[in-house]
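Below is how a single chain appears once it has passed through the pipeline. First comes the sequence as given, then the structure the pipeline wrote out for it. We keep one example in the README because the format questions we get most often are answered faster by looking than by reading.
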Amino acid sequence: MKRIDEVLGELTLPAYTTAEDVCFALRAVAVHAAEQWPGGAVCRNDRAPHPCRLHRWGLRVLTDRGLSGEQIAEMAAAFEASKVRS
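Resulting structure:
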């Protein structure tokens, strides 16, 4: 049986990236973060092998906007911290 990623393929990137796309991408990276299980890393949200489709899409959008991996990680951590406070 094929994994869902193999069946559905990659999510397409927007033709041009808006501020709203950046917000969605940041949320995708933060919500679909890795969680360690005995069988390996899985997506915290949908239990697909990490990185899942939405996490990869978010990384591609943010990278296309010129953000480095370190900046993306910091923004995702800040996003998670803001959720805890609210």
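The mean pLDDT is 88.

See the next section for the split statistics.
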